Amino acid sequence: MIALPEVRGKLLRDEPLGPFTWFRVGGNADVLFIPADGDDLADFLKALDPAVPVTVLGVGSNVIVRDGGVEGVVVRLAGRPFAGITTEGDTITAGAGALDSMVARASAKAGLTGLEFYAGIPGTIGGALTMNAGCYGAETKDILVSARGVTRSGERVEYALADFGYTYRHSEAPADIIWLEATYRGTPADPEAVSAKIAEITSRREQTQPIREKTGGSTFKNPPGHSSWKLVDEAGWRGKLFRATGGGAMFSELHSNFMINPGEATAADIEGLGDTVRADVQSKLNVNLEWEIKRIGRPL
Description:
Largest sheet: 5 strands, antiparallel
Mean pLDDT: 97
Shape: globular
Helix content: 25-40%
Structural class: alpha+beta
Radius of gyration: 19 Å
Strand order of the largest sheet: 6-7-13-11-12
Number of strands: 18
Low-confidence stretches: none
Strand content: 25-35%
């Protein structure tokens, strides 16, 4: 059994993770840690045996938790201490647990443009920092000023935009950093115009993506010169059920780069579908599809 330091937050052993993910699948965390605040997290990491793996789980919108659960400690930044959003002049500072969409709305209220695209990303700021999240022609790198986090050893760090080495859906920042907050810079604009653009993005997303299904967002990155959804379509996988160990998973009829759990899928069904489609697209179309969804944990 993992020896755990004293904390002010919550430590839960053998805790189911499926309810924390949008796919609603997956096994248990050996330990789930919900820190009280950033200091609680830093102190915990300093005292935790360095050999114990630590995994971060945000709002669970772009992740598959495998059926065998996750080894070590899963950290979930939840609640008010990690979700605050403040504005000052042309900058917005948001906690890593804040929803991207809420940051977009805060930018409108502050009369700042440039962050509207965050209304179309179903995740949190921590995830956006990690993967340079973006949509509709804009990315995190276009607006980020700096971010602050904690390393696996509990050390506080601050990164400027240039330190991230961002490329398409990728960051060069060390993978063990747990981000706590980020500061963005917008451009002064009419609040009503910013709100109108956010409403347009939200409406477009509702009409083109299966947001009311158990989904994980965009499954694959767009290969150079291609759209992933078109490749999935051409290979014949839109709406086609795939079963590995459970009730099956499929690519949405509405948007064929979005996998969905139509009922009783397992994580093996969902990940197996993705891997099968990747192999099929490579075989039929000679294009390599890279996962955008993160997969964590152990197979059953």
